[in-house]
Here is the input.
Amino acid sequence: MIHVGLIYGGMSSEHEVSINSARNVLAALRSERYRVTPIRIDQHGRWHIEDASMAMQDLESEARGKHALFSPMTEEREVLVGEGRQGLEALAFDVVFPVLHGQNGEDGRVQGFLQTLGLPYVGADVLSSAACMDKEFTKRLLRDAGLPVVPFLVARQNQQPSFAEATDALGPTLFVKPANSGSSVGTSKAEDEAGYERALTEAFAYDKKVLIETAITGREIECAVIGNEEPQTAVLGEIVSTAVFYTYEAKYQDADAARMEVPADLPDGVAERIRALAADAYRVLGCEGMARVDCFVTPTYEVFINEINTIPGFTSRSMFPVMWQHSGMPIENLVDNLIQLALDRHARDARLKTTR
Here is the structure.
C-alpha cells in the first residue's frame, strides 16, 4: 500500500479552492491501494496532521489536527512530525500530493521544502513551479521560445505605465492582473483611465508586480497535460462564460455564470495545433507531472497561450479532471498516473550524481 501525504489549504487567496480540490483527490485515492494522511496548512501558515476519516468530512476545520514539525527523511523513508522537539512520531510517506493553489504552494516554495526532505511529490519541480506561477516569467520564456503569447506590459509600485502608454502599446481594452496569482483573483478589465487606476489598485493588493495585457476577443480553450519527459494531452475544453470574463465567482461559486464544453467544438486542425502548443509550452517551462495550459482562440483561429497552471483545480467545477474523464481517464486513474509519475521522477533524479 502506498502512503500518500495530501497537502492542502495554504496561505493563499485560493485557500477554499484548495480545500474543495483536496476533497475530490482524497475521494479518488482508492483505499485498497493508498493510505492517505491529510496535511492541512491553515491560513496562518501552520501545518496540521489530520485523520483521513475526519478530514473527509470536514477538511476546512481550523480546530483539528496536531501541529507539525518536520525533519528530513531517514533511510527508512520516515518523516518525523510532532508538536515540538519531544514526542515526534514517524510518518513513512512514499509520496506527497500537494493540492495547493496560488501563492505559497504552487510557486515552488512547498516543492523546495519537499525536495529538501527528500520526498517524491506530484507535479512540477521548484523552478518550473516558480516560472509558471510568475506570469511575466512565463510569457518571457514562451515568447523567447517562439510561442505565441498575449502582448503585455509589467507594472511595479514605483514604475507604472499610464493608461495612455498602456493603451498605445496594447490597445483600447486591457486586462490587469497580479503577476503571481490564480483563479482570476485580483483581475480586472479596464476600458478607461478611472477603471485602469482601480484595476491597478486591486491587483497590487495581491502582488508587488502586476501584468497588463491586451484584451483578446475570442474563446477560452484549455488543455490538460500530464507526463514527465513525454507529455500527453487530453481533449480540449472550452469555458463559456456569461460574465464579463471568467472571474473567481464564475469559476467556483455561480453555477450559472459559466459552463464547460468538453470536448471543445473546434476544427480538427486547430485542436491539434492547440494541443501541440500546450505540449511545447509544457516542455519549454520544464513542467513534469501535470499542468493545465490555457489559451485564447480568436474568430480567425489565431491562438495565444495565456497561462500555465502547475496545480490545476480538482473541484467539481474544474476542467482538468473533466478533460481527462472525456479522454478515457477517470479521476481515480488520473491520480494513479500522477503518483506513478512522481515516483518515476524521484527514482530518475536519485540516479544523478551529487558528489564527484
